Amino acid sequence: MRDTNVIALPNSQRWFSFPTWRCSALLALSCCLATVDVAWSQVPKNPGKNKPAPVPAKGATPALVIDSENLPAGYVPPKEEDPLIKLYIPLALPDEMGKLKNDDTKFLTTLNKAQWDDAGKAIIRNSIRYRLSLMCLEKNLQKETLNELYKLRTDLLRVLNGAGSTAKELKPEALKKFRSDVMQEFVKQATPLLQNNLYVREQIVIMMGELEVVQENVQKGVAAEAFSPAFDPLVGAIIDPKQHETVKLLAVNKLTRILKIGTLNVNERTRVAEALIAELAKADTHWWYQMRLAGALGAVALGDLKQPIVVTALREVVSDPKREWVVRAEAAKSLGRIPLPAASNPSSVVLAVADLAMQMAKAAQQKPDEPHWKTAFWKVYLAFQPIDPNEKDAAKVNKAGLLNNPATAGMARTPYGLIVPMVSAILKGGRLTAAQLSALEAWLKSNLPAGNADPKIQAERQ
Questions:
Q1: CA–CA separation, 188 and 129 (whole Å)
Q2: N or C: which end of the chain has fewer CB within 10 A?
């Protein structure tokens, strides 16, 4: 099983990496379903098939069903079209388009040969503008022509990521530098389009997050490397109070990818973390967006002095009774993926996650048929364990999970052992027992600091 922010779907099953149920009314959170986390488990279309396996006691993670075409439970699409769908702002007028098109005939040859002299730069610059202009044409932004917009985006992304492909004389670092220069030009021209038609905004965000200065080559052992400078306009989209939440959500997902396979320095990661934390603190956003924000924070490593701001934000979400269960569980999962310096009080993290499991167990006893339990319990399990043997923490030092973090490994063993049977029962569609609850509750009571327990934890458990 792999942890990813992008599930590859056949083109026949997606538009813009979105499921096929996207219709004329804006499905405000549709984009998030294309970036569904492997931990997200919905009721399968064929209930008799692909039943989730129980959680093995030895720590191997089970395979869960991924159904990326399901809407979030309880989601109701808006009845009215979003006005941003009807916003048409041309990037280039017809006369300019004609001139740009002439240069575009030389674009692929120039780009692939890595010609970066003045003439080559002009061709590449003009061709990027031409292709972005095509994306802004009203005729490509209709329900009937959205596949054309998807094709424009995928074609441009493919050629940008393959820049310099025939320049065999270029050494890897020189090729990387050339691609970076080209991608910087793209980002410069594309950033203003984050105020254009909603469909255009979404495509721009996707492209920014999927730019790669180094492409993966499994045979040569080369890992993909994201174009890290694209983080800047993505952060801008997230903190823009007027930006559409769909665009923000996509930006969060793509920032997560850059955090995982990019090369952001500590100051840049701090900017990302502060933006994510500020958004997560808002109480009036959709729970799915909150879940993605919490998940993105699990990819942020800042260093001992700054890291506590991430830990504190996630711990507060875990202990917030006003949040949706899956949001709190996602925050718990993220706490198992970030460094926990002494200043962040690692023991309080284990207590918060264990208490969340306790609260969820009690709620699941009362309402066992709620559709979110499998997802929520699975994410709590992942707070302790990696998704697969290769998953590392955000600092790329230890395996992911509280059981593998030196700061929490010792304390986490007992609650993990008490939580695993609960997760297994929920994934198999079973009921939790009173004995399971009482054992975890007894551990919590015996480990809460005497006279110094977290008041939130105390209040929620009463």
A1: 10
A2: C
